[in-house]
Request: fold
Amino acid sequence: MMNMNIAAVAKAYTEKFSATYQLFFSPGRINLIGEHIDYNDGFVMPAAIKQGIYYAVAKNDTDEIHFFSTDFNESFSTNIHDIKKADGWKNYVLSVVNEFLLLKKNIKGFNCVFGGDIPNGSGMSSSAAVEGGIAMALNEIFCCELNRVELALLCQRAEHNFPNVNCGIMDQFANMMGKQDHVILLDCKSLDYQYFPLIITGYKIVLINTKVHHTLASGEYNVRRQRCEEGLAILKKNLDIQSFRDIVSSDNLETYKDQMSDEVFNCCKYVVEEISRTKKAAVYLQENNITAFGKLLFETHDGLSKLYKVSCTELDFLVDLARNNNSVIGARLMGGGFGGCTINLVKEDSVDLFIAETLSAYQNQFNIPGEAYVTETSDGTYQIAD
Ligand code: GLA
Reply:
C-alpha cells in the first residue's frame, strides 16, 4: 500500500500540474550523541530516520518555479532569474535553488510539491530534510552530477544563507549519507565517517516530543556558535591548538577562565567534554556496552542544560522522568534544543509502558499532549522508483 504522505504529495502534484513527475524521499535524523559540536570540529553520531519529506518534482520547460507545500497548504511561484530571500519554508527551498545557481548549474523552471511527517521544531531536522529533498531532485532532473557529500555541503550553505542559521554539517550529512540500520560516526572536521550497525539488543530508541519550541532558535543557535568562536580564539592565543578537539581535558581550560565571560567559558567546557564523551560513546557502542553508553547521554543532557544552556523546563522534566525510570538507561535533549524531542534508550519490553507513563506525566505537568516515536533508521535521501 502506498504511504499516506507519498499519496498526498502525488495527488496534489497531479491535481496542480500533471501526472508526470519524479518522487523522492528525504529523511529526518536522530543524533545519538555529539550535540552542538558539529560546528566545533567534534564528532557526532546521527542516523537518518523513516520520518521525512516526500517530493514530487518535474521540469516545466519555462523559467517559472512553482512550489506547493502540502503541510502548510501554501503555494509559491517565482522566476528562476528572480530568486531571493522570502520567509518560512520558502527560504529553505529557495536557498537551495540559489546555491545551484551560484555553482552555475543549468537549472530551469520546475514544479514541486512536497510534504511529510517530521513535526516542525521537533529537533529531528525537518530543515535538512526540506533542503535535501529539493537538492536531490534538482540534481537528478537537471543532471547536475553533484555527489552526496557535495549535496550535503550545498544544503548546509543554503541553510546559512537565506534562513540565516549557521548550522554545522551533521543534519545535512545524515540526510544524504544515512544508511538503514546504521549510525554514522562523523568527524565534522575532516568529514571522514564510519557506519556502525545500530545494534542495541534489548533496547529501543524512543523520541518524546515536548511539542514546544521556545525561542527564535536560530538566534540563540547563532549566539552559541559565536560564544564558542570567541572562546576558541582566546584559547588559541594561549595554547598551541587548532580546535577544541586538541584540548585533552576540560581541566586545562580553568587556567584561562578569567580571560572570558562565564557564558563563553561554560560553552567551551561543554564542547571539550562532549567531544571526549562522543569518542568514548563510539567505543562503548562497538563493545555493545549499552549501559555505559546510556550514562553518557544523561551527562550530555546535564552539559546542554547547565553549561551550554540550550534546554528548557519541558525537556529537563522529561529527562528527569527518564532518570527515575528503571527501564530507561539514557536520555537527553536532541538537536538544537529549546524544545523539540528527547532521545531515550528504553528497555524493549517496557517501551509501551514508558511512553504511556511519560506522556501522562507530561500532560499533567504542562497540560500539553506530547508525542512519542519509536525510531526506525532509513537510508539517506533517495529517488522512489515508479
Ligand atoms: C541543529 C543544527 C546542527 C547541530 C545541531 C546541534 O540541528 O542544524 O548542525 O549543530 O543543531 O547538535
Observations:
- The longest helix spans residues 262-286.
